[in-house]
Request: fold
Amino acid sequence: MKVYSKRIVLPKTSELDIIDITDRVQMEVKESGVKEGLVNVFVVGTTGATTIMEYEPGLVNDIKRTLESLVPKGADYDHHQKWQDGNGHSHIRSVLLGPSIVVPVTSSTLYLGAWQKIVYIELDNRPRERALKISVLGE
Amino acid sequence: MKVYSKRIVLPKTSELDIIDITDRVQMEVKESGVKEGLVNVFVVGTTGATTIMEYEPGLVNDIKRTLESLVPKGADYDHHQKWQDGNGHSHIRSVLLGPSIVVPVTSSTLYLGAWQKIVYIELDNRPRERALKISVLGE
Amino acid sequence: MKVYSKRIVLPKTSELDIIDITDRVQMEVKESGVKEGLVNVFVVGTTGATTIMEYEPGLVNDIKRTLESLVPKGADYDHHQKWQDGNGHSHIRSVLLGPSIVVPVTSSTLYLGAWQKIVYIELDNRPRERALKISVLGE
Reply:
């Protein structure tokens, strides 16, 4: 049984960047030596999210618009009184989407459908170098 | 320590079918031989979701109406320009609900509350034979 | 390889209480003896959720208002015909937020960002003694 983990840092991101990290996660799965098991991708920070989606520009736009519709950026959030950084919407969107995703690993490979990509969604309103923790468990 | 996984295929589903898969997941937990650990249920595809809910017809209706209210089917999504299959809403709903759920296993049994059922939610607008990957880790 | 799990019960909660359980989860991680791995926190029940957020009163208010905006409490849900307990909104909010969160463990410590706290969100409209299952896997 193996446990492997790696902290990775993404190139500086901007608000609502949606970044395909599938190849990077696959690289860490190979590096782990785990053939069968699970991988977890976890955002270190309260204003980002990980999820799985078809990665094409139209859908990327649709996700952005949906987030704006459900949790508008311009609204007056109480969180703004704490830090005056105007990113209340970022935190709430992160809670809705979630910071952590679990994906099966089979034959040292992410077990994904043809169109499934693992993505990081930047939700903060300031550019950031974002850290992710990739953990692989299995044998 | 054991790692077990199984791909299962559901009978053909229609849009917004919500299917109780608890017994099937429990069957795979037994088959795995894992007494204590975790099970992950993962949808292979970008237009479905797994979650946990009380499984009764009224709540099933309520979930369907909420999805329609938050991410309307009739809207004009950019994703439609990619494949012309009109399922932009399906992809976005899948991102909101998530394709992956983790449940504890104790004494070879899913550790669920009295009313908790593991469900698959079909979000695509075309009938599909949907694959799920069930992974069990533990000892 | 170790597998550890513990059922904990929270002091009686009220609707939309958001409770920081980070220290308690950390305590169980220490108790487990796992140095490197993953921890899962799972709500035993269909009207609660776990997630990760910055824990400050303004954001707590914002989350409450967002839930009320997306899934209003006063609406007429079909679920109310089943039990007459008026908590249809609680169930739907639980499906949106999810009952289960996975967090990395490194050097016997939760691998969290500076502001990340693991929280339990009570979504039911009646006071409850809520059970959570904390599972730790790793070595």
About this structure: Chain C has a mean pLDDT of 97. Chain C touches chain B through 30 residues (CB under 8 Å).
